[in-house]
Design a protein that fits this description.
This protein is an all-beta fold. It is built from no helices and eleven strands. A hairpin with a 4-residue loop joins strand 7 and strand 8.
C-alpha cells in the first residue's frame, strides 16, 4: 500500500482545511489509519486515528473538538477535517497505517507512511 496525502496549504487563524490521504492497493480497508504532524524543531506527534470500520476514533487533546478524522473505504481515502486552526497547528501532516485492531498513538507503531503535506496557519 502506498499513501498520498494532499490538501495542505496556507490558511488564516480560525479557518479550516480538509486533508486527504489516498491509498493505492487493496488492503486499505484492513488498516488502522492515523494522522501525525511535525512542526519545525519538534518531534512528530499524534493527531488522530481511526479503526478499520464502525468509526472508532481517537484524538490527541490538541485535536479534540476541532479536528475530525474519517475514512471512505470504498474510495481508499482517509480524511482529516481541521477547523478553528491556530498557529500552533502549523506543521507537516502525514498519514500512516498499521495492521491490527488497536489504535496507537506512537509513530513507531505504524508501518506505512505517506509523504507529508504542509499546513501553515497565519495569525
Amino acid at each position: 500500500v502506498q499513501l498520498q496525502a494532499s490538501g495542505g496549504g496556507l490558511v488564516q487563524a480560525g479557518g479550516s482545511l480538509r486533508l486527504s490521504c489516498v491509498a493505492s492497493g487493496r488492503t486499505f480497508s484492513s488498516l488502522i489509519m492515523a494522522w501525525f504532524r511535525q512542526a519545525p524543531g519538534k518531534e512528530r506527534e499524534f493527531v488522530a486515528a481511526i479503526r478499520q470500520s464502525r468509526g472508532v476514533t481517537q484524538y490527541a487533546d490538541s485535536a479534540k473538538g476541532r479536528f475530525t478524522i474519517s475514512r471512505d473505504n470504498a474510495k481508499n481515502t482517509l480524511y482529516l477535517q481541521m477547523n478553528s486552526l491556530t498557529s500552533e497547528d502549523t506543521a507537516v501532516y502525514s498519514c500512516a497505517g498499521r495492521e491490527g485492531s488497536l489504535l496507537k498513538t506512537t509513530p513507531t507503531e505504524y508501518i506505512i507512511w505517506g509523504q507529508g503535506t504542509q499546513v501553515t496557519v497565519s495569525s
